[in-house]
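User: For documentation purposes, I need each entry recorded in a consistent format: the amino acid sequence on its own, followed directly by the corresponding structure tokens. There are two entries in this batch. Please keep commentary to a minimum and don't merge the entries.

Assistant: Recorded as requested. Entry 1:
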Amino acid sequence: MTARPEIADARRVVVKVGSSSLTTLPGGLDTERLTALVDVLGTARTAGREVVLVSSGAIAAGLAPLGLAGRPRDLATAQAAASVGQLRLVQTYADAFARHGVTVGQVLLTADDLTRRGHYRNAHRTVERLLTLGALPIVNENDTVATEEIRFGDNDRLAALVAHVAQADALVLLSDVDGVYDGDPRSGPASLVDTVREPGDLAAVTLGSASRNGVGTGGMATKVEAAFIAAHAGVPVVVTSTAQAAAALAGEQVGTLFQPMGRRPSARQFWLRYASRPRGRLTLDDGAVEAVRDRHASLLAAGITAVSGEFVADDPVELVGLDGTVVARGLVAYDATELPRLLGHKTGDLPPEYRREVVHRDEMVLVRRRP
């Protein structure tokens, strides 16, 4: 029996690898290390496992071909580097996987593709169909069109979302670090954390936030955040180094294991909690907060004191208390222009067309956090 059967027995696995494991600042892609990873994943495929690869490295791979000495400081140059690098990255993957008889498919996503419900479903269908056809999806953020600031190697959260989109049985987060330590091993004694069963296990741990080689900024803090997202959605996670990828997939006791911390939610509930982008806010009185938070009741117009933001029916909104605490997130049943005249009114006093819940409890997830 393996040390970690939940990983060894996982039929469908999402594997994320960072820029620091695939590239060097002056030389672009490190084909030797990339090929070594592909050999591990190709072996897993031969053994009958399904693999989805979330790979950073597009921008870093484009630096040397464009004669860039370091990370671009402006968005346009970063997008140009991604345009050149993404082609080289995927072609290198395609050639390496072809030696294992594996066809790859490229899936480029932006934040908008996962924050919009329809796009989220489309991403699921695409990944699922690629796997059904025997292809190996390679997922990356579409840095060539991203409008927000581009960060090298920061695909950890994307990998956690993809693990749910792909309905994966396990997630493996690879980088140049062996796992989660209870301190910084570069500055003093530190021990590797073997297993995390709940967030409190890392309460006293200070997590680093910077990559060491200058081509990636996804640090241990982002990996832990991603691991908790997946673990709370019922997916076991291993955080370890790329050199230990084969051992991790075999269920050996390497890196740090995040055990599942909850049952797998529906795609709709997961999307609402982790991927949706709120378009506005509804402020609730104390009675409504109690009803939503403690009884998981639907939100009615009578309990709303204020509305902010621009949204239409079926958009995600945050539900907040009078003190600004975010209580829940849900899909609103009315446009922002309709709601103000409904506030404070009992449902029975409203015209028939406005007697439905403002946010139905089945379209809501509890958040309980400060803004």
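Entry 2:
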Amino acid sequence: MLDSRLVQQTNRLGLELFSQLRKEEAGNLSLSPYSIGTAMALAYNGSDAETSEELGTLLGYAPSEREQLNADHSGMMELLNHTGDGIQLSLANSVWTRKELSLRKDYLQTLQNQYSAEHRTTDLAGAQGVEDINKWVADNTAHKIKDILREPPGNNAVAVLVNAVYFKAGWKKEFNKEKTKPAAFHPAAGPAVQVDMMQQSGSYLYAQSEDWQAVKLPYGEGQMDMLVILPAADFSLEELQTQLKDGAFPGKQGFGERSGEIRLPRFQSGYGTDLKQAVQALGVQHAFDPRTGNFSRMADIPDPIYISRIVHQSWIEVNERGTEAAASTLIDTRAGSAPPVDGPFEMIVDRPFFYAVEDAQTGLWLFLGEIEDPTVTK
């Protein structure tokens, strides 16, 4: 049986990393909590001792619960691989090693059996490794992410763990292009910008408080949706993030069917970063230390194995027809409540907002992000 904890912990990890990234840079941000959580789970299975304790805390599963974590991921992949008509969702995992280095058979078996991970060998110290891994990611993200690696992992690379997610879906009810009009959007800083504002009316799952409005726009036959949260004019995205992390935002039961009008800008957003510092800020230290990193469950070699970087890239486009999104996470390991409301609502998304592409059944966030300025695509 699928443990709801996987959904809660994955979404929480996404929000916590998001908060760390917001401290480092402003502007449009996007990431895939599911991609990051899955890639970290691949690494977690190879860890031991203090490294394992820290990664377990990050993922919300103690080292003694690794089998439960793996079973939950396997069950989630099975669920997500049957999203129904109108939704294209591709999930893929891979582990890359040098031909002359063998990983532990039980580690590889876990990744293959529970995560459907492919095991491939390549030259991790040369250009061929970069070409092979980049091609695999491109092939598994409809070529939306082409260059997750820009340089070889190096001579000390033990394994490269990669997750890729690709999503494409049409709205259950498309926006009429003829109703899309130029409109003003007001970033948190600077003058207003002109955007292409989509518009439609209908009945939606909707919630609101004095701090925000939220609506769920379904894809396909309703198996997945985009959650759009618009903070009130005097309520910031940072304050909204705090409410989301603290669990103050309502779950499924807080949303009710309500008629209204939604205006949402077309947008496209691409983002890439090394998550190493953000993950370290969340308490993971040993995993990145060349002296104390312990991934002995991954391979039998004399030198400590550690994580040198966690590369994450995401891309999303939202228009009248629907949404297309992709994300990939690469881990390089080396040795050495809503009040009652009446009447139709009006939700005009003309200032910075939060969004998440979620599985409607479980509430798992495949992608999340915030748009400070829809006219900025990178």
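Summary note for entry 2:
The chain is about 25% helix and 35% strand.
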